[in-house]
Amino acid sequence: MPDTLPDPSTVLPVLPAPSAQAERLIELGVHEIAGLSADEVRAVAAGAEDGALLAVHPDRAPASALAPLLRREGKPGFVVVDMPDVDGFTPCGVELPDAPLYALMGVDRGDRMADWSPAEALPALTGEGRSPLVLTEGIHWLLQQPEALERNRCFMTIGSRLRKADGTLDARTPAIWISNGTGRDGRERRNAPKVGWCWWNNRHTWLGFASATHRGA
């Protein structure tokens, strides 16, 4: 890993109250994707601490269904065309609560690890007692706090990995950033939120590593 640690992550505004997050999920129809009633979502929110992020379990609401709900400058989010297997990126080395809807605490964008590779960041995060976010958790964060995605301040979600048929892990790792509207993205998608992938051993100066301190049902 790099010899010196970059500056601590940028301090972002406090997340909306869990009750407000619940209403946002209901407004977007996430509860219907997950097969939950509005009252069930509100009940989970009522038991969550301030500062928590609500997230639907990826088994109930996959990334392919959530990404189009993202918005930036009025443009919907999307999954890159060369990631048709996005929903195959499942939790790896991360234990999610056995609940359809749960809360995460201490969510951080990991700016200080910009220009680290996933291979370098993972042991550093776990050594600090932090858990990398899975892809759907990263999307949920941006549904509630779109401003957490900034140019040159985007993030990977290395808690999700794709396991190949032979049991080995695919070298791609999911990330969420902002489209430049180039290549196969299309000019109409410039500045839209983009779910894509990076290589496990590659570094990117504009990607941190999103993580949380703990999760609970």
TrEMBL record:
Protein name: DUF5701 family protein
Pfam family name, one: DUF5701
